[in-house]
Amino acid sequence: MITNTIHATSRFLAVASAVFLFHACGHTAAVAQFDGFLQPYRQVDLSSDETGILQAMLVIEGQRVEAGEPVAKLTADDEQVQYEMAKHLADSRGNYTAAEKMLEKRQTVFSQIEQMHAQQHANENELLRAELELEMAAARLVAARDEIITHNFEMQSAKIRLDRRTITAPISGIVSQIHCREGEYVSPVRAEIITIVNVDQLYAVFNVPSNHASQFVVGKTFHINCFSGNSVAAVVESIGVAIDAESGTIQVKLVIDNSAQQLRAGDSCTLMIDAIP
What we know:
Blueprint lengths: L1 H14 L3 E6 L2 E21 L4 E6 L6 E2 L4 E5 L2 H15 L2 H25 L5 H40 L2 E3 L4 E6 L6 E2 L5 E18 L11 E6 L4 E9 L9 E9 L10 E7 L3
Antiparallel strand pairs: 1-2, 2-9, 2-13, 3-5, 3-8, 4-7, 5-6, 7-9, 9-12, 10-11, 10-13, 11-12
């Protein structure tokens, strides 16, 4: 009984928005008013696909952060060691230098044997052996070069794993809530760390009776009045594709420029348009 009454009331408020009559230059016009609310243009519940102890929270609630800015760090002792080891191997050139020197030596020996063979001072087997040793030295140099490339890839992989222990903001915005504190364990079950909201722009959300939907076109500008007293321009960004079965309304979202931070998400707002006869 109570639930039905609430639904009926909600439908009445959404569909039967107040219609006003006003006089201008002796003419009477009907205006429909729709009530809505402001919400963040984008909200991110930031989490980590890494698990571990939260070592440091680098932001506080209400702080503005920019995209890519570090906001928290997980313990990374093992990852740091693995990266340092991989970096040492990637920077090592011992095997490559030795293989390079060996190839130079084998090239010199082969040249000498080849000259001796031409003068009949070395037999065919000695020439073939020198040629084989030269080819093996060249193969060792290629293997040493491939080893360096492999170590570089391993270093890059270790660096990625280390960097993932630092959580960065995916968007610019305000830290609205911190879900995890230093010393707490971040796991797949409890992965959320902070919530960031982008309020440089805001959505004005209205549930409009379906018979008024044709008055809204993407890109069209309307003026809305906020409960805080501000009157601002808002541009239609999206119009719902389905009619809500209970209220008979369609959701319309308009974007407001809030770069001056004069408006707050959650504020009530109203939109007035010409009423449909």
